[in-house]
Amino acid sequence: MTSNSIDSLLHEERRFPPSPDFTEGSVASPALYEQAKADRLAFWADRAREQLHWHTPFTQTLDWSNPPFAKWFADGTLNVAYNCLDRHVLAGNGDRVAIHWEGEPGDTRTLTYAELTSEVSKAANALAALGIGQGDRVAIYLPVIPEAVIAMLAVARLGAVHSVVFGGFSAESLRSRIDDASAKLVITADGGWRKGKVFPLKPAVDAALADNASTVEHVLVVRRGENDVQWNERDLWWHEVVSSASAEHEAEAFEAENPLFILYTSGTTGKPKGILHTSGGYLTQASFTHKNVFDLHPEKDVYWCTADVGWITGHSYVVYGPLANGATQVLYEGTPDTPHPGRWWEIIEKYGVTIFYTAPTAIRSFMKLGREIPDGFDLSSIRVLGSVGEPINPEAWIWYRDVIGAGKAPIVDTWWQTETGAIMISALPGITTLKPGSAQVPIPGIKIDILGEDGTRVDPPQGGLLVVSEPWPSMLRGIWGDPERFADTYWSRFSTPEAYKYFAGDGAHVDADGDIWLLGRVDDVMNVSGHRLSTTEIESALVSHPIVAEAAVVGAADEQTGQAVVAFVILRSEHADAQTPDEASTLLRAHVASAIGAIARPRQVFVVTELPKTRSGKIMRRLLQDVAEGREVGDTTTLADTAVMQIISDKLK
Ligand code: PRX
């Protein structure tokens, strides 16, 4: 985060205590904090029993005998899909709407819990017939359509492991994820709707599997876009295979530590990490936080989280948390501004959404369009607002509360990560006095500390590095296939043999009230529109282009997207004069989009003749960031050649 945003955080001094009305009916109570403080493990054991149905009850809460490899509720067994489906039907809530789905072109589909249970059972039978069983990996590459949720739950029901790949990722990114997890099956669609058009998905799968050398045996294709697709021997239509399957499927119980999913996320190296989550602990924390952080009253609320199922927010707060809690939710396929800029508000009005969870980048883009647009819709059903993905600046916070929340809905700013699996820091509505710009306090049962470089705790208001000091139920259990990288990346920096501490990669400080303020990543990970991107991964994509000799990428502050990708490249000498810098920039921006996905497309690519390096050859990205953000260039004394920055700055003027 830049110094500008820290300044702006300091200008908003207003505090928002909970209204007595809200507190009276709120799900969360201060007793949760007290119980967690008195006995953290007993607290989580109670939550696991209260939130979930266990086929075999557990007797052991946490096994931390082999850190950093944790086991939660290890001798218990459960079925994750049963917890999200059948038990609600058996409890008499089969007619409750689970999903109000809205397609971008305006087509809709409503699924009750009973219907969703049948659909998932059919899909589970179909997958089993294709040979999918416990432990097998299934890649899912779908738009936000009901089949995405059905596919995830069907995989979970069989005790298999899903790896959802965001539909905006390229064929190459999909291939590397399929290979890393040795997926046996890919579930995709012909295409999906986005910005008024069908975007094809199947060709990316075909390209990813073109050499027939992967572990994939079948590709199951949902018909959604009605676009023409190439057909291969391994391909099967979802509607043929799933519709003919039986709607009866008995959910078998699996151990609490049975792997549930792998989700790839960017780290500091070029290769994305396959973050592994398991069943019992994950579902406990995802559902507990979903209920308490959003004050969910499942019998009357209509909840909407705008995340794509391809991200962790879509896993924990579209699929697992809400469905485990028996919530009624909205699922929307398309973009916020199609066919008109009020589409989201129209959806809120149409379904009477009461709880709304989105990202600051979206809020800022609506702010820019003006309040007239949301003011044209009836948003009076809204009673809780959530934010996730990056720090929310106080201006956006106040706008969100005033314009979307009618000046009274509490906002929960939730800090967490793909790795943490569920919310870790957040206010609890009805309890916490809200402070715009701060994520506030660890949820009950979570222990967070802010440490200095030397590992000692820093005192307010000094900034430091955020660590989680005790294991938590929804923690990642590892990086798929790479236990060393897991131990190294997260646990080596601050752990001692007596105390293992998880290093999150975020800077933060605590104020005198004990509220936590997130200050952005401290590693080579950028946050663009709430999505994580690795500088190294984009640099690798750039140098894979034949005209590029060297590349350096930085995340530069951007009013709209939080950070934006800015690249500096040196062209190979034989190409340096053959292209104008503008041509090279256009070419390379497109190249990154096709290598990784459109989200990684640089905002700018600057062609330079030198990059600032230390004497040991390390690129000083900090200086490039100064240039990219239009600031005066900082201290250059450690550069091998101190004139370099002058050359770069002159060139970009
Ligand atoms: O830097 C933090 C930022 O997003 C990172 C995690 O990204 P990802 O794994 O993609 O998960 C995003 C959705 C949970 C964190 O390391 N981040 C996430 N939420 C917040 C945040 N930064 C500040 N405030 C937040 N509420």
From TrEMBL:
Mg(2+) binds at residues 543, 545, 548. Acetylated. Deacetylation by the SIR2-homolog deacetylase activates the enzyme. CoA binds at residues 194-197, 313, 529. Residues 31-84 form the Acetyl-coenzyme A synthetase N-terminal domain. Pfam families: ACAS_N, AMP-binding, AMP-binding_C. Its EC number is 6.2.1.1. It is an enzyme of class 6 (ligase). Its cofactor is Mg(2+). Catalyzes the conversion of acetate into acetyl-CoA (AcCoA), an essential intermediate at the junction of anabolic and catabolic pathways. AcsA undergoes a two-step reaction. In the first half reaction, AcsA combines acetate with ATP to form acetyl-adenylate (AcAMP) intermediate. In the second half reaction, it can then transfer the acetyl group from AcAMP to the sulfhydryl group of CoA, forming the product AcCoA. Belongs to the ATP-dependent AMP-binding enzyme family. This is Acetyl-coenzyme A synthetase. It comes from Antiquaquibacter soli.
